[in-house]
Fold each of these.
Amino acid sequence: MTTARPAVPSVGLASTLAVHGGTPVSASPVPFMLPKLAEADIAAATAVLHSGMLRAAKKCEELETRIAQLSGAKHAMTCANGTCALQLAYEPLFQPGDDILVPAWSYIATAAMLVARGCNPIFVDANPQTGQIDMADAARRITPKTRGIAATHMYGCPVDIDAVQSLASAKGLKVVYDAAQAHLSTWHGKGIGQFGDAVTYSFYATKNLATGEGGMTTCNDDALARQIRLLRSHGETNKYLHEQVGYNYRMNDIAGAIGCSRLDRLPAETDARRAAAKRYEQIIASTPAIARSLRALSITPGAVSAYHLFTIKLDLSTLTVSRDEFAKALLAEGVPNAVHYPRSLPQQPAFAKHLGNQKPWPVAEDFALSVLSLPMHHGLTDAHFGVVAEALAKVCTAYAR
């Protein structure tokens, strides 16, 4: 470990921000993410290239077996990407014309694949503390045509699964959990693959478990697993024998090999992310200038997050600038950041014609103006946290109202 900067930096009100020409806290930016492959990952991919077996084969099967075991699912099916994973889950469970409850605060794929299925997305507001789907609001938005819930484990943190399953049981709804950001997260000590009708994952290049592109759908029902496997590969039961129409959504063994190699390190890397989140929480709590201006989004009680992202919410009433101006100033001090997301899903033009008479989503709309993600990965050092602490305090103090 390198030497840490002071946990509570001393910053005067007259400090000049780097964005205005002052000296930055760090000339070397803190890495926002750490997507670099290890030599073992490259060797695993190379071994597949040498084998000539490039299609989905033993490495994809190994990845399926291992993730099913880690998540508590009975079945796991790799596929081309996380969006395909959603489509493979939605198609057997939902029918065109169904109303499906879906978070107003999520990545677009969660809702877009419902629209692609011909379903009607019924957008549900976010919980103001956690950013997860607000199940009290979900219950209010039930319609006579509601047939399912598509809930996202946002930022790596599980939703209130008990509340989701309770509503689903009471109303006879199917449940799909979008866990694209939540590899190895748990709910009351259990893997998230044990819950709902299906769970979907993404292995995109920036995810905690990244293969470049790739995805997976898990479930615990034998018939549903068979249906997903058929849909994944042209409805084929034997070579050139097709039971139904399907797609070519298969993964390949190069990506599977990279996934297996990186999965060896994922538990330790996830522990490092959790430790990093605690460091951030300590920085916020121990620095009054920071604590006055922002907070970390809360973790759902009973959940253990995988911390794909560490997302804060600015209290704009205490600041003289917007979130975007704050983010620009923080970047200039040496702390890269990102907005996840700058629009709620109902604010996306793609869904304009699907809103009908649905009501506003004040929490999600507020998040779109006030959330910011800080660097989060397994390689953060004491020095990195020192830079973030000093930069946050400097910017919060300079822009204090």
Note: DSSP finds twelve helices and 15 strands in the chain.
Amino acid sequence: MAPVPTRTLPPNQASDRSPLAIPVGAVVPYDMALDRELRRFSQDGYGFEQLDLLFTRTRFEPLAVTVEQAREISQPELITEAVRAVSATDPAGYIYGCTSGSFVRGLAGERRLAEAIRTAGREAAARAAFAVDAASAAAEPRQSTSAAEPAAVTTSGALLDAVRALGADRVAAATPYDQAVGALFARFFAEAGVEVVHTVHLGLSGRIWTVPWQTTCELACRADHAEAEAVLLACTNLPSYEILDQLEQDLGKPVISANQATVWAALRQLGFDYYGPGDALRSAVPVGPGAGPRSDTGQLQEVRTV
């Protein structure tokens, strides 16, 4: 029998760090189809997943991709319940993997959502641990594997963090949404002092995960603008893993996708390096052990944001 290969930690990781992936609760919308892509973005330089993403979904809503849907799938009580559903596994943190749901209520809404996730995760994990310990009176009290204050990442917050890490003040946006949803995306960044100088939409109402790579590449190229210091690919259901490196080469500037930024931010908060596609984020901010949290295709519709 051939010997089982052992894993060697990358040289920049602490020698006492477990080689196992760190559990992270992943709350995603009911129509999310790209779990696999989020996992791929978390891989280290050896192809091992650094985050053990434990997925849970919001309840089903028979809605098209609109502002109404974004509001429905991001109700704080709904997200809190989803966090609780996965909290018994004692995650080190949580992500809310939805772009529109995390920007639809503006910058203040995103911050409230992140805080609600942290609070719900901390309290629910503590209750779960207490229940287990109470049922095992003879056992020694269990030591939680997560921090007292779990990490909390929303996709829109992560995109904003990525833009700030790149030192960009003006960006372009490529979205699969309609103009109403896209306008709220631009407003979210404007509130944070980042100008979206140009936006291109696909105007889709659903099944965004079926958009071909070539369409996404064309969308990003149409969105690019001479004044933009980076191009953002919005929506966690828009595939991007395979094309980020090529897009950065073609456009000569950072291209940041929703899924990429979400995982990058989670890794950053948990003290891990990002090894995925996209050279801009790989080298944006030194991240290592001990790093803390942050302070059906449609026709292209081109919009100049004023």
Note: Residues 106-135 form the longest helix (30 residues).
Amino acid sequence: MTEPANQPTADAPGFPRIGFNLVFVPGDGIGPEVIAAGRRVLEATGRLFGFRFEWQEILIGGVAIDAYGVPMRDEDLAACRDADAVYFGAIGDPKYDDPTATVRPEQALLGLRKGLGLYANLRPVTVQPVLRASSPVRESLLEGVDMMIVRELTGGLYFGKPSGLRAGPAGREAVDTLIYSEEEIRRVVRLAFELARGRRKKLTSVDKANILSSSRLWRTIVEEVRPEYPDVTVEHRLVDACAMTLIQRPAVFDVLVTENLFGDILSDEASVLAGSLGMLPSASIGERQTAHGLHGMYEPIHGSAPDIAGKDIANPLAAILSGAMMLRWSLGQNAAAVAIERAVTAVLTAGYRTADLLSATGDATGLRPVGTQAMGDAVVAAIENQEHTAAEDGERATALSGGSR
């Protein structure tokens, strides 16, 4: 892997500038704020590594219902399909929370996943050493936490039919259908095996096989795929036991793979390890290859948080780190992704904290409490510092190679 300091800057004479076509979806609540910070960081990274972005903004979610009467238009789904990747903020607006409503912002998110074929959601969970005090979990349990949660994204209860309310003999009743096909399970399980092979070679499959037929099929498929990866150790855990172990012994996990609903819940639970929902990025990827990598959508997992929207207090780091995942998975720019991750570590080490990252007591001694925009600016400055380092390294290399002749 090429180190960022060895990269020429985009301003170097004759340096080629690769272009990426991206759709960005600010969405609802704090989405516009965190995506704005993330875009500034991506642009700074592009200047360092010699690529540029063509951005197309589209409205999806509650803002789209306000503007168009629907949470997502067909032409906006097509724009997402045609882009190299989709950079996504958040969806959700309390004014559409009526359970009887036929149009809701969240319908767009499910439609995007299905319409783009984004079958797997990747949620890395790591704990920055300087943030251990921010987690409600005892610090001694956080040593060595580094896991990837792989969630199946286009099947299960969220998409099964029939689903809805109906009149029954004893009054109102509701039905949701949990259905999985063999192929839906197999492709996400195989992806999880591949990820485990490139990490610590341990795969945990999470199910409820003691109760659910779908989970018994899930476990069967995992065992069928297992011989293809003899170097990967496999264990099966029931979802309730896994939820407990996530808090009691989180460092035992490497790659977890599970179905849609379980993955949704477990990955949110895992956010307490990192100290805040505002620290966890995600990638939703499909099977389609673009010119640069896998087509995908990248978003923080924290949701729209309408209660803090517009107050400049949201944590943008999950959105910024989602941008790093986009560079790595969809744009083929791994060194640039590393540069962002290093910049985030640098600003946290320097003491920058949004409100959610302060200790439970609110003690900010020795820290730098900042808002959304200031945290984004700090990461940009850390990126630009890497640019200066790269330029200085280049000057030193020139002097050593030819300056003494």
Note: The longest helix spans residues 372-402.
